[in-house]
Amino acid sequence: MEPVIQVHDLVKVYSLGEVEVQALRGVSLSVDRGEFAAIMGASGSGKSTFMNILGFLDQPTSGQYLLDGINGEHLSRDELAEIRNQKIGFVFQGFNLLSRTSAEENVELPLVYGAVPTSKRREMARNALSQVGLEGRSHHHPSQLSGGEQQRVAIARALVNQPSILLADEPTGNLDSKTSIEIMGIFQRLNREMGITIIMITHEPDIAAFAKRNIVFRDGRIVDDHHSSARTATEAEGGRE
Amino acid sequence: MTRLVACLRIALRALMVNKMRSALTMLGIIIGVGAVIAMIAVGSGAKKRIAEQIASMGSNLLVVMSGSSTSGGLRFGSGTVPTLTADDAKAIQTEILAVKYVAPNLGGVAQVVFGNQNWSTIISGTTPEILEIRDWPLSSGRSFTQQDVDGTTKVCLLGKTVVENLFGGIDPVGQIIRIKNVPFVVLGVLAPKGQSTWGQDQDDLIIVPLTTSQKRLFGMQFPGMVKQIAVQAREPEVMNEVESQITELLRQRHHIQPKQENDFSVRNLTEILSTAEQSASVMSLLLGAIASISLIVGGIGIMNIMLVSVTERTREIGIRIAVGAKGRDILLQFLIESLVLSLIGGMIGIGLGVAGTIVLATFTQWPVLFSIEAILLAFLFSGSVGVFFGFYPARKASLLNPIEALRYE
User: Fold this and answer.
1) Are residues B230 and B206 in the same domain?
2) Which residues of chain B does A92 touch, with a Cβ-Cβ cutoff of 8 Å?
3) Which residue of B has its CA nearest to A81?
4) Do B105 and B40 fall into the same domain?
5) B117 part of a folded domain
């Protein structure tokens, strides 16, 4: 089967005035469907730049990136937006929910831009919320939810369009360790039960340990890429008690 | 369609969240639209009043006045020397083709008596054509005819003010009044015309046949003399032509040498009033322009608030773009916001403008005139102000870089 993500010799150069910063110096990577990969690295290692390119939020300077066989190189802003809408789910460190908007409406957001009819939107949003265990809280606003719950709303939003990949950028960065483990549990369950491909950036090794594959970035290159037996959330919780 | 509804809902929610800010932003548009409505109403009211006055005076009207005189170094005004005659009027009627009606006039002020009532009023001796020229119908009775003029009958038509002062509740038609002690039969009552441009009561007069006026009331010394001749041209375009033809004709008839001054003068009254109408137009245009400036200032207020709003919601915009909002979705969202602000503001402004104008009109007695066109125009104008001033902030929002927008604190 064709890999979901195919990256070949990706280079990204930022020019900050006269200085040129090489964020990515030739990254090649392939991710298969159903993988759960963690990308690790110190800040400035290029992992966030890599993530932005994977999420079609940014374009590489050179090199090739195919998502589901789609090359974003010559696509317009709006075409990229459509791909993000249909194929990518984002989970951010700061949750990035719309305040003053209920959980359900936050989850519906990608459907609004995907022109899904209102009645169907509601059903899909409820579905996604139940997948992250938030059935009863669909009418709460983000300010009425805990950090973990907010992140679960964000995950539901990322899932609602049934994307090809779920990109998570430091999803546990703003959470305490117990909630972090809960979120990892949800990721693992989604990966295992629904076969969702997840790529997650983190700088915490014990969070990366939940993934089946660990990729390490340093100075714009991949320096380590190995599969490991992931620890499970239940284990982690057990170990903590 | 779903997208449009969604954008509308998003925009309305954003406005509801910042109620105070939305209301203040709207206030600029409310004042602008209200001012435009009020100014146009006042301006077109003034124009309408002038147009009515032109109509009441008679259209395409020229007045030939008999000449001024100089006596021992004292110069007297027009009409003091009897230079015009009824024959001049006839000549104008027969020899100038573009003339429709001619009505010579000889009159003056006289005391009028009916029963135990008396009243001083203007007596106008003229021909029946005057009613055509001034477009002046009768409210009761009938007019006198050319036969009455030819036969010097003692009949008269009364203005409404005269009727009120002499008759009280009695029907004047068929009654006999005395003008300068001469008995006259009342044939009819003129329909009320109201005040003239100069505030003169046009209904305070009595019309009698020209010959009767000449022979019985005012013209004993100079047989056949008239003071003025009212001339109605067939079309407004030929007014100047008729004016010069009358001048030429009368100079010829009065044997005036080429270097001598006219012993009469021709006045184009319609022209005077059209000038007034023009200045009223300019005035209302000016008022409208000033009011429009306040509308534009209101628009700048919208732009300002929208720019603040875009900056404030950078992160929200970033989220929307990240999950798949296209440029036009964001553009539409913010454009709808400013459009809703300006249209609601426009509607409230129309209400306030109409109400304010009515209040103004009751207190100042100014004539005001609302037109659907003006109201629609103001509404559309406020809408376009919303689109025009909302576009730049909306476009700015739609072009945000999602990565930077998501990082924005």
Assistant:
1) yes
2) 406
3) B324
4) no
5) yes
Task: Give the whole-angstrom CA distance, residue B244 versus residue B363.
Answer: 46
Q: Of B210, B236, B262, which closes a domain? A: B262
Residue B267 contacts residue B230 (beta carbons within 8 Å): no
Contact B402 A115 (CB under 8 A): no
Can you list the alpha helix ranges (DSSP code H) found in chain A? 47-54, 77-87, 103-113, 118-131, 147-159, 177-194, 205-208, 233-240
3-class DSSP state of B123 = strand
CA–CA distance, A79 with B248 (Å, rounded to integer): 83
Alpha carbons B132 and B100: distance in angstroms, whole number:
10
Domain count, chain A: 1
Query: Under an 8 A CB cutoff, do B324 and A114 touch?
Result: yes
| Cβ within 8 Å, pair A115-B323 | no
Span B254-307, pLDDT tens digits: 888 888 788 888 888 777 777 877 888 888 888 888 888 888 888 898 899 999
pTM strictly above 0.80: no
Task: Find the domain containing A220 and state its range.
Answer: 34-60+77-240
Cβ distance of B324 and A113 shorter than 8 Å? yes
Residue B62 corresponds to which tokens in the numbers above? 């020229």
The answer to whether the beta carbons of residues B149 and B162 sit under 8 Å apart is: no
What does the pLDDT look like over B208-223, one tens digit per residue?
A: 999 888 888 886 667 7
Q: Are residues B382 and B344 in the same domain?
A: yes
Of B3, B319, B324, the CB nearest to A96: B319
Instruction: Find residues 123-152 of chain A whose CB sits inside 8 Å of chain B.
Output: none
Count of domains observed in chain B: 2
